[in-house]
Design a protein that fits this description.
The complex is a heterodimer of chains A (68) and B (307).
Chain A (H helix, E strand, L loop, with lengths): L11 E8 L10 E5 L2 H15 L2 E4 L5 E5 L1
Parallel strand pairs in A: 1-2
Antiparallel strand pairs in A: 1-4, 3-4
Chain B lengths: L1 H7 L2 H24 L8 H26 L7 H24 L9 H34 L4 H23 L4 H4 E6 L1 E4 L2 E4 L2 E4 L5 H10 L1 E7 L4 H5 L2 H15 L3 E7 L6 E6 L5 H9 L11 H4 L7
Antiparallel strand pairs in B: 1-5, 2-3, 3-4, 5-7, 6-7
Helix pairs in contact in B: 2-3, 2-5, 2-6, 3-5, 4-5, 5-6, 10-11
The chains are: A alpha+beta (68), B alpha+beta (307).
């Protein structure tokens, strides 16, 4: 369970920040491809600040910005 | 002028009404002070509830003189009062729900329901204390006791009634059924753990991990008995604990609760504005156990016998 904002926890994926090595199928979410890891992290922070979202780092290196 | 006053209300009845109203209102004021931690915590809230208590006490006090004057229909005022107090509960609920979006973390429906019910009950509190006080004074009149003695009887019986109802309505707190202690936070990769128990992975960035590690506080609530976990694991109860914790210390960012199914422990983690551990533990221990989640262990025991 994440932030206690509701009985039913519903988080929406706002964006996925990926690298060129990642293969991500298209969806309704925003997918941004960064040049390198440094830029990937910078973009993630910028987006999460803008939407006041939380960030999850997947084990394969993809950053997800979620909003509850 | 004196004769006219006597036909309207006798000195005994006047004394009875004044003492009973005073006792009822005082009883409400006393419980309002006891519950300083709970809503209301501002002057206007106090004023509203004291005025309501005065009205409730007036209804209780006027019932005996009304019956004495063969005005039995006046007792129906009590039914009106009940309706009115239900409206108080509804108003409280709506008011608190309206504030939900402005709090650090929401109180949750269960906590709001509990607070609203308490406020309704507290009005009955004033009514019952005032009514019993009035009855005792009327009995003193029957025994031809002096007016000072009548007043003394009213005050004493009113106070005893206040203590009885106060003890009866006093609920348990988290501290009564669980141990509360500070716990160590660790971050492994993008996972936040409290004493090895996973709490969240919503801290993917380095800045988030830094703030959690440097400024975050985590407490562990361990139920004393296995069955105490039933109440503590309830979502509404955990929301109430988190609400009290964040309201007392503020919340900069991040707030999580987690229940560990293996150890039955509850974890509360957040980044406070003011880091006062002693206060945090005190607040969590004193969070009321919600009426809606309270379970009687004795009732939960099955009556089916093993063969």
């Amino acid at each position: 369970m994440g932030n206690e904002y509701a009985q039913v926890q519903t988080s929406t994926i706002i964006a996925a920040i990926v690298l060129a090595s990642h293969k991500v199928a298209g969806g309704t979410e925003l997918i941004i491809e960064a040049q390198d890891e440094k830029e990937q992290e910078k973009l993630t922070v910028e987006i999460s600040k803008a939407v006041k979202g939380d960030v999850v780092l997947l084990s394969n290196g993809i950053y997800l910005v979620l909003r509850g | 002028m004196d004769g006219r006053a006597a036909t309207l209300i006798s000195p005994e009845d006047l004394l009875l009404i004044v003492v009973a109203i005073s006792m009822g209102t005082m009883a409400r004021i006393l419980v309002l002070k006891v519950d300083y931690k709970q809503y209301p915590s501002y002057p206007n809230g106090y004023l509203i509830h004291i005025v309501l208590a005065f009205i409730a006490a007036s209804i209780g006090a006027a019932a005996i003189p009304a019956i004495k004057s063969n005005n039995y229909t006046a007792v129906t005022f009590l039914a009106l009062a009940v309706q009115h107090f239900r409206d108080v509960r509804r108003t409280e609920r709506e008011s608190l729900k309206g504030l939900e979006a402005t709090e650090y973390t929401p109180r949750g429906d269960a906590y709001i329901d509990g607070i609203a019910k308490t406020f309704e009950a507290r009005n009955y509190f004033a009514l019952v204390v005032s009514f019993i006080s009035a009855v005792s004074m009327e009995i003193a009149v029957v025994f031809h006791l002096g007016m000072i003695v009548q007043a003394a009887v009213g005050v004493c019986v009113g106070f005893i009634m206040y203590r009885i109802i106060s003890d009866f309505s006093n609920g348990k707190t988290v501290g009564d059924i669980a141990q509360v202690r500070l716990a160590e936070i660790t971050v492994e990769g993008s996972e936040v753990l409290v004493e090895g128990i996973f709490v969240t992975n919503l801290v993917g960035t380095k800045s988030a991990q830094k703030i959690i590690l440097e400024e975050g506080v985590a407490i562990i609530i361990e139920p004393n008995e296995k069955h105490d976990a039933i109440a503590l694991h309830n979502f509404g109860q955990r929301k109430a604990i988190l609400f009290e914790a964040t309201r007392s210390l503020g919340a900069k960012r991040y707030n999580f609760t987690r229940k560990d199914y293996q150890t039955d422990q509850i974890i509360i983690l957040f980044v406070p504005i003011v880091r006062d551990i002693e206060k945090l533990i005190h607040v969590v221990k004193n969070t009321p156990l919600l009426e809606s989640v309270k379970k009687s262990h004795a009732v939960l025991k099955t009556k089916a016998k093993e063969r």
